[in-house]
Design brief:
Layout lengths: L9 E15 L5 E9 L4 E7 L13 E11 L2 E11 L18 H15 L3 H13 L1 H6 L13 H19 L6 H10 L4 H4 E3 L5 E3 L1 H6 L1 H15 L8 H13 L15 H23 L6 E2 L12 E2 L2
Parallel strand pairs: 3-5
Antiparallel strand pairs: 1-2, 1-4, 2-3, 4-5, 6-7, 8-9
Amino acid sequence: MFKEATIQGKISGPVMIVSVTQKQTRTSKPYLILKLRDDQKKEVDAKLWNMSVEEFPFDKNTVIIGEFSVGEYNGQKDFTLDMYREALESEYRMEDFINAAPYSPQKMYEYILQIADQTVLDDVYLAIIHNIYEKYKEQIFIWSAAKAVHHNIRSGFLYHTFRMVQSGIALGKVYGQALNHSLLLTGIILHDVGKLKELYTDPTGNADYTPEGSLLGHLLIGCEMIDEACNKLDLQNDENKDKILLLKHLLASHHGKQEYGAITVPQLPEAIMLNRIDMIDAEMYQCEHALEDQSNGTFTDRIFGLNNTRLYKPL
């Protein structure tokens, strides 16, 4: 619906409310910016004038039938919600509005553990992987990888890890002599496990920060989860101390720079590789998402997560 809308036209149909933000006009009158998703999973911001959050009758994830006017602002379509009502169950299918990973969560989960069993030759690392993935399996199937920017979809955590594992295997073949494959693959599989506590993800895939996530962040939380698993598995001893330390270093440093949220900078070849693989997948996801609905021969809007770059889609 939103994709086919024409400037100066009218459109109507079912949309899901993703978020509601209140703003004020220059004369201090309230209005809402509604982030809405249609049944083609296209998201837009629409204005609802003379309305406050307290007055608006619907919560996020509610599907409404909306009637919109389509204007133009800075060369882009500008949507205004004119009329709305709650949609009847017979008027939509909820799955049409849910942004989800393109692969089955079960198959991605099984693939990741299969690769771990085949590639991670260190029994300590393999035991930690299985402990965490089995303990948090229900969450892992649903969890988003972020509130915004990249892989912020249902099963996004799995999808991000799934693709990173494939990259890790490919790059490991090129740089094999410089890398401990067991450490690198374990770091890839576990690098974002702290997000299982940093974020809360609802059944539609929308995520928000938990108090623990806001106060500590997923890098520190992930290191704590490694310690929890090691305590549960009785692995905290002098024999395993160094290898557990190296694994925690990969989690603590995988953002690369402290100004990007890293606890410390990468100081191992495996930590450097993990950071690069993470960045590649995050940035390529943003490219894929931005160019998906872009017309050939045009530039996207500036993309925050890509240093405000405007991407070009060739003819």
